[in-house]
Design brief:
- By secondary structure, the chain is mostly helical.
- The chain has a domain of 147 residues.
- It contains 8 helices and no strands.
- The longest helix is centred in the last third of the chain and has 31 residues.
Length: 216
């Protein structure tokens, strides 16, 4: 119970940060101009061609179509292994990400940056759907792999790769000019909060179903 409360505290704090940031974006966006501009200038630099190709490829991981495919494939693979709690965790993470992204973008309706966009991006800017989706979906995979993989070195390598993927997807949205840094921070923060809300529920079901021999 104490461990569950710890995750709920983390979730509450992350969601509170998101709400505060969203309030500023909605009513006082000019306050964030200097902060966003300084980070954009640092990350984008002179837009070298190699970096543009790299981030254009990385950002594909966070596309809605890619995230949907990742959730469906992962769900099917986990289901085939009779890891029912894990498959449900990934599916719910993906569904929740889609609902939250669409809902909050329409609430805040923040226009995208006026910088040169190096890839096409439609709709509103806040929060970054790429950042939120990858945090939730890939974050759920990190949790599952950390529980299921016994070999410590392999587990560590996979965790680092997946964590770097989440970070790079967020950076790609800033570099490509389609999101403000605060959009990405908001996406990561909200995704982290939702992940911490879901994890105790998933972990309890996983324990119960394994104890009852309902899953491997």
């Amino acid at each position: 119970m104490k461990q569950k409360q710890t995750y709920f505290v983390k979730a509450s704090f992350a969601i509170l940060v998101f709400v505060m940031l969203g309030y500023v974006v909605k009513f006082y966006p000019e306050v964030l101009t200097g902060f966003d501009s300084s980070i954009q200038s640092t990350i984008r630099g002179q837009l070298p061609q190699l970096a543009t190709h790299f981030f254009s490829a990385i950002t594909f991981i966070g596309n809605a179509s890619t995230q949907i495919a990742l959730v469906i494939i992962t769900f099917a693979l986990l289901l085939n292994q009779k890891w029912y709690a894990e498959s449900g965790f990934v599916a719910i993470s993906g569904i929740l990400a889609a609902i939250v992204i669409a809902g909050f973008k329409n609430i805040y309706q923040r226009p995208r940056p006026s910088l040169e966009h190096l890839v096409h991006a439609g709709g509103f800017s806040f929060p970054s759907g790429h950042s939120l989706g990858t945090m939730l979906i890939i974050g759920s995979l990190i949790v599952i792999l950390s529980q299921r993989i016994k070999q410590q070195q392999l587990k560590l390598v996979l965790q680092i790769i997946l964590e770097l993927t989440i970070l790079l997807v967020g950076l790609s949205r800033i570099y490509l000019g389609v999101h403000y840094p605060t959009d990405v921070i908001a996406g990561f923060t909200l995704g982290y909060g939702l992940l911490n809300l879901l994890y105790p529920i998933y972990d309890q079901k996983r324990f119960e179903w394994r104890f009852q021999n309902k899953q491997k």
